[in-house]
Structure formats: C-alpha cells, structure tokens
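Risk mitigation, structural track. In case the binding assays with S-adenosyl-L-homocysteine fail to produce interpretable data, a predicted complex structure has been prepared as a fallback.
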Amino acid sequence: MSLGADLAQRIAAAGPITVADFMETALLHPTKGYYTTRDPLGAAGDFTTAPEISQMFGELMGLSLAQAWLDQGAPPDFVLAELGPGRGTLMADALRAAGRVPGFAEAARVVLVEVSPALRARQKDALAGMDVAWVDHVDALPAGPLFLLANEFFDALPVRQFQRAGAGWRERCVGLEGDRLRFGWSPVGPQATLAHRLEDTAEGDIVETCALAAGVVARIGAQIAAEGGAAVIIDYGDWRSQGDTLQALRAHSPVDPLAAPGSADLTAHVDFEALARASAPAAHSRLTPQGVFLERLGITDRARALAANLAGAALDSHIAAHRRLTHPEEMGNLFKVLGIYPPAAAPPPGLLP
Ligand code: SAH
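Fallback model:
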C-alpha cells in the first residue's frame, strides 16, 4: 500500500492530522518515508545542496569551526557533530580543510546525527577510514565542548501552520475529500508560542512553528553555553516565519505536496528568530546572508587558487559554482547563517555578534 493510502486510512479512522504530522510521516516513515528510503541529492535526484555544488563550501565551514576551536583554547577532547549530513560531503570537506590545523583532527570525536539508513550508508562511504559514530537525535550527543555544523537540516523538520483568525488562530490540517488527501483548517485554542505574532500579523496571515527545531537548538545551546563550542547553522529562511512556505520538490521541480507523499522532498523555510530564542543561555550571532559569510571567509581567494589548476568545462563549472553559492540572485541571499557560541567567546569567523 502506498504511503498516501496509509495516510488516508489513518485520517478516515482518526480524523484530520496537522501539517507537522503529515510532514514527519512523509519524510521519515520507517519503510515508506522520503528520507528513509533513498539518497535524494544531486542532479539525478530531487534537489542539490551547497556542499554538493562545490568543495569550497564545506572547507570554509570547517575552517570557521577550527578557528573557533583555536579561539577557545583548543580543547583537547571535543565533539565535532553534524546534523543531517546528507551524503557526508560537507563533513569530508570540512575535515580535510580543518585537519590542516594542528591538533584539530586528533582532538575531534566525529558524531553524525542522521535518521536515514540510506543516507547513513552514503556517509559511511564518504568518510571511509575515519572514526565516526552515528546517533538518531541530538539528545544522544556525547558530553564535552560541541562544535557543530548543519546545512539544510532544519528546513526538513516538520512545521505546523496557523492562520490568524481574530485574536487567535486556526490550524491547517490534512483531511480527506473522498479518498484524496486535502488541506483544510481546524479551530485551535490559544497558542502560547505565537503570542509575539499577534503584533505583526493581520486577519488571514499564515505563520509557521517548528517545535522540533526549537528543541534541537535548546539542546545544542545548553551544551555550548556549559561546555564550550560553537554551531554554524545554514538554511533558507528568515528572521521570523513569513506565510505558507511548505514546498514539495521532485526532480528539481515543485509538485503538489499531497499528491504522492513519501516520493517528494518536503521543506519549509526556517524561522531563525525562533532558533535564536531557543539557543539561550548561549549567545547567537547576527543572521548573515550565506554569500556575505563565505566572502568574509575568503571564498574568492580559495576559488582563484582552485581555478589555477582547472581548464575548459571544469573551469567553467567551478566559476558557476562560486557564483551559485555567493551571488545574491542565486543562493547568496536566500540562504542565511546563524552562529551559536558561549556568551564569553567570540562568534565563529564569518559571523558578527
Ligand atoms: N546537509 C546535507 C543534506 C541535507 S538533506 C547537505 O547539505 O547536502 C536533510 C538531511 O537531514 C538528510 O541527511 C536527512 O536524512 C536528515 N534528516 C531529516 N530529518 C531528520 C531528523 N528528524 N533527524 C535527523 N536527521 C534528519
């Protein structure tokens, strides 16, 4: 039975489900979920991410963390973690670059937070020969100073969607029309987490919340504030959620999110204000456009150095990759960077307090 038919059966029996329940089932169902069953990345897949576009992305993220590690006195035993590592490319590039900082690789205990068996297998290949551990959730991260990377992880976490109705909200849900899945709205009681959104919304406006993201960042922030470390989080989104951003992608094109659950990627924009709030008692950086972050870390010098050994089509594609990562009309502005660090420390390089 398809996952869509499973969901229809569940809704027929127990009533409409929230958008978050729908997203979680579509992405992570143990045998029919989108991430659990495939490697979705790359030209032949459904979407491409920054580390798959150029090695420069992971190298610079790794060097930013390695400098933050040096700035905090180079703790001799620390956790180097990544959330949702995809094919493992980002961690491999980060470790290759940061491994040139004396002592860094020896002190690092690499832990990957990944639920997908299909992607764990890819990560194992990409990091072959290295000592790597996997956990399902940040709650299982080992103690110690925590240096952490996350690219396009938070956009995969399930969001709830609310629409302003008078002085309160109604919630978008997935119900049935005949045997087909369909969006609708349900009345809900007061939402404490949305109190601050009564100020900046008007009747009919839609806002999104992600309880899982807030929980993950609270866990990371607590460890970084208590034991040292830093997190560099990159994703698309903005300071405050803006409207309905739920999107389904298959083969690099938008599709109806309800049409064939489990067969398309589902994402929502990240509300960085909510992540920043959840990171306390750690400090957080200013939200910084990806292009600005990478330029501050010297991506153009790195691009020139790599270009010196390239010619023809390889050189053209390298130049296009640099533009794609940094240009404001490509990924440079849509994607944002948030740093999390101990209140007494400086933010990771590339970011400002
Ligand atoms: N960071 C990678 C991949 C992004 S795709 C890159 O930039 O290329 C999202 C990743 O998050 C995948 O590895 C997916 O399996 C993982 N993921 C999604 N939801 C998750 C969850 N709830 N817990 C842990 N990992 C999750």
